[in-house]
Amino acid sequence: MENKVIDSRLNKEGDIIRRRRECLSCADRFTTYERLEKSLPFVVKKDGRREEFNREKIIDGVKKACQKRPVSIEKIEALVERVEQYFQDLGEKEISAVAIGEKVVKELYTLDDVAYVRFASVYRSFKDVNEFMVELKEVLKDKKNLKEPDRVR
Fold first, then answer.
1. Residues in Cβ contact with 30 at an 8 Å cutoff, skipping those fewer than 6 apart
2. Residues 113, 56: one domain?
3. Alpha-carbon distance values, 153 to 51, 92, 149 (Å)
């Protein structure tokens, strides 16, 4: 079927193109949507299994960490988008699940302290309360250092 494009528009996010088309033989008009196909790497799990990159798994984990926190779904989705884009930009065919977890931990650190500690405690499998406290002290020390320059003596 031969057709021509009458109008093209990009959606707000810039990842879908809406095209109005017209059939050259019958003059019917119709709409097509074109989405950028991302080639994401395979994820190599700790046990050696390989699976497709699944952004929903990351969203679910971050949502759990952010439960009852003042973090909007938009911020969570933006965080996951940054993680996904980071690994896509690397151009690797395979990445480790550990690398994904570390990237999420880094992103959460700047987003929300409590969510960061929650995610890190599950992701890093703290063996006891002491490991948890070491991580918590680091967060508190970093946050204190950020606030101290504001003091004037």
1. 20, 21, 23
2. yes
3. 56, 51, 10
One domain for residues 47 and 78: yes
The pTM (predicted TM-score) of the whole model is 0.63
Domain region containing 10: 3-35
Determine the Cα–Cα distance for residues 79 and 146; give it in Å rounded to an integer. Answer: 22
Looking only at the bridges linking them, the beta strands covering 42-44 and 16-23 are: unpaired
Radius of gyration of the chain (CA): 22
How confident is the model over 63-122, as pLDDT tens digits? 999 999 999 999 999 999 999 989 988 889 999 998 999 899 999 988 998 898 888 877
Q: Strand ranges (DSSP E) for 11-151?
A: 16-23, 29-35, 42-44, 50-52, 94-96
State the DSSP H helix or E strand holding residue 90, giving kind and residue range, or none if neither: helix 73-90
Decide if 34 contacts 16 (C-beta within 8 A).
yes
Q: Phi and psi of 131, rounded to 5°?
A: -60, -40
One domain, residues 14 and 67: no
Cite the beta strand spans of 62-105 per DSSP E: 94-96
Query: Whole-angstrom Cα distance, residue 64 to residue 36?
Result: 29
Q: Same domain for 53 and 10?
A: no
